[in-house]
Amino acid sequence: MSLPDLPKTYRPLGPRVVAPIFAVVLAGAFGMLWFTFPQETKDAVSPLQRATVVFFIGVGVVLLNGLARSRITASADGLTVVNGYRKHELAWAQVVRIQMSPGAPWPTLDLDDGSTLSAMGIHGSDGARARADVVELRAILDAH
């Protein structure tokens, strides 16, 4: 297997497609629901109740965005793993191996300190694409 040129970034396809669609559906469904309420129902909803609904819609959109922005970047210096809103910079020497068990949602990185790190930039829901990305990332790791 020939190694890709570095830096190489792995991003999940499924969440990047589904997250914006679901965010629009979520906000749109609540918006449509609000506009179908009779005026007396709208008048009975307090500003705090409205703010609470808007807050939870916002939380949902933020969580979807975090899932969609996950990525793994392999560079000459090591790996950068972004899981949601958290970023991990790893030197190649810190990463012992990458594994993805059948049915796992994403691969895990075994680190030299005995800990593991989820790598949400590759999603098992992407099927063969995810398996190929793990094989390629494993080859890059072996080369370093």
Question: Could you explain the architecture of this structure?
Answer:
With 144 residues, this protein is of the alpha+beta class. The protein has 2 domains: 13-68; 71-143, PH-domain like (Roll). 47% of the residues lie in helices and 22% in strands. It is built from 4 helices and 7 strands; from the N terminus they run βαααββββββα. It has helices spanning 13-36, 39-44, 47-68, 128-143, and strands at 8-10, 71-74, 78-83, 86-91, 95-99, 108-111, 116-118. Strands 1-2-3-4 form a 4-stranded antiparallel β-sheet. Strand 6 and strand 7 form a beta hairpin. Helix 1 packs antiparallel against helix 3 (47-68). It is elongated. It starts with 7 loop residues before the first strand and ends with a helix. The model has no long low-confidence stretch (mean pLDDT 93).
Structure characteristics:
144 residues; alpha+beta; PH-domain like; four-stranded antiparallel sheet; three-stranded antiparallel sheet; 4 helices; 7 strands; 22% strand
Structural class: alpha+beta
Q: Any idea of the CATH class of the largest domain?
A: Mainly Beta
So how many helices? 4
Kindly report the average pLDDT value.
93
Task: List unreliable stretches of 5+ residues.
Answer: none
Share of β-strand residues: 15-25%
Radius of gyration (CA) equals 20 Å
Assign a percent range to the helix content.
40-55%
| CA distance, first residue to last residue | 15 Å
Tell me what the CATH architecture of the largest domain is: Roll
How many individual β-strands?
A: 7
